[in-house]
Write a structure and sequence with these properties.
With 157 residues, this protein is mainly beta. The protein is 8% helix and 41% strand. It binds zinc ion (ZN).
Length: 157
């Protein structure tokens, strides 16, 4: 069975940065499952997987615009410390959910200087050239309900 829209696909993958740093990896025994064609994985990886079958492997390099987008320096902002609910101990590296024009996004604290907190709302992988090594584990038809919801329901089907 070939990968196309409305298939549930299970892949083993490793993701490395341009610098060769391991960024992410599917669990050893358990491939990652997703509904193909529903935007559940980044566009560059989804299009590379289209047409592949169980057992096949590929190396995919994904440019930022087909991945997590380019970095946007306008998303690096200073906020008053009072904007952080009851968080007396704000430290660099902490992450928060914040509302924005594009819905909820994760912001990361970059620096704290007195009452001013500098945050970065870019995705941690924005601007990165991403290298995936992928092996397709298995492919199955999605259920009507999965297609309707736009995501996978069960590992087992
Ligand atoms: Zn659902």
């Amino acid at each position: 069975m070939q990968i196309s829209d409305a298939k549930v696909v299970f892949i083993h993958y490793t993701l490395t940065s341009d610098a060769g740093e391991l960024l992410d990896k599917s669990p050893e025994e358990e491939p990652m499952g997703y509904l193909h064609g529903a935007g559940n994985i980044i566009p560059g990886l989804e299009s590379a997987l289209t047409g592949m079958s169980a057992g096949e492997e590929c190396d995919v390099t994904v440019e930022p615009e087909q991945g997590y987008g380019e970095r946007d320096e306008a998303l690096v902002q200073d906020m008053p410390i009072g904007a952080f609910d009851g968080a007396e101990e704000i430290e660099p590296g902490m992450r928060f959910q914040a509302e924005s024009d594009q819905g909820m996004r994760v912001i990361e604290v970059m620096a704290v200087d007195g009452d001013v907190v500098t945050v970065d709302g870019n995705h941690p992988l924005a601007g990165e050239l991403l290298s995936f090594k992928v092996k397709v584990d298995r492919v199955r038809e999605a259920t009507a309900e999965e297609v309707e919801h736009g995501h996978m329901h069960s590992q087992e089907l």
